[in-house]
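Researcher: Let's continue the batch. This sequence belongs to Ribosomal protein L7/L12, and it's 123 residues. Same format as the previous ones, please.
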Amino acid sequence: MVPLTVLFLLVILAFAVGSAVTLGLVLYAASRRPRPPLPPNARDAWPPSLALPPSPQVPSSARPGPGYPAYNPTNFLSPGDRERIFVLLRAGKKIHAIKLYREVTGAGLREAKDAVEYLERYQ
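Model: Same format as before. Here are the structure tokens for Ribosomal protein L7/L12:
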């Protein structure tokens, strides 16, 4: 007679093998399924919160260098809000400036942080 522990281990082994085989078949079937093509310019517009309006064409001689960001976050601010952010930055209150930028524009934390750092560096 087979001890109960050996029988228990055989049941567990059979379950593990069956699960592994099932997972392998599912992954194989998923890899064989054709994927729908992406719409044109889908990569440029994802995620939607970061999609920026198209910028006007600037002659290559007037374009900034490679270390200069491609957009200006002050385009999304009114002159009064922009000045309030600059006052906070001059006072050394960067976190308050980020909070203000988020309130005014509705941007996410990362986008607001990048925008305020841009304003601190380039303005």
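Researcher: Any comment?
Model: Residues 85 and 91 are 10 Å apart (CA to CA).
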